[in-house]
Amino acid sequence: MANENLYEADFDEDSHLYEEKQLSLTRNEALYLSDSITILLEHSVESGRIHKPSGGLLPSAKVAVPIETIEKIGMACLDATDPNNYLGVATISLPITDLYLLRECCQSYVKVNNELVGFNLLRKIYSLILESDIKEKELVENLTREIDQAFLEAVKKGKSIEEI
Q: Strand ranges (DSSP E) for the chain?
């Protein structure tokens, strides 16, 4: 029973990692991700499970991901390259755990057709992973900015620190 409670506590702490986020991808970004991932297969063994890429990583593949992630990126590729999709953008829903995996294949210097796909993907992925931290930081900055402005106004009016 104690072990169950310990497991539940661990799951509660990490449950935010399974929160779904919406990742918008350009045609080049979707194709780049598709080229950079391979399928992660699960094989049963006597004492548990092991994970390994299917037949080793392809030369262009950098990260092994679950089949569901391959399917979602595949759908993004199809959507973004659809001739009727004039914007050439597709949006997929991924858990934060998958965003961490995709981050591993993004290198900031990578360009595809003059688009900085590596840089753009890193910014998008980090923005989603750190969304709550970014909102908290913005809130703190807004509050301190208001305090700083009130302090400056008081100083301009000739008030001393004790009066403020």
A: 20-26, 37-45, 48-53, 63-65, 89-95
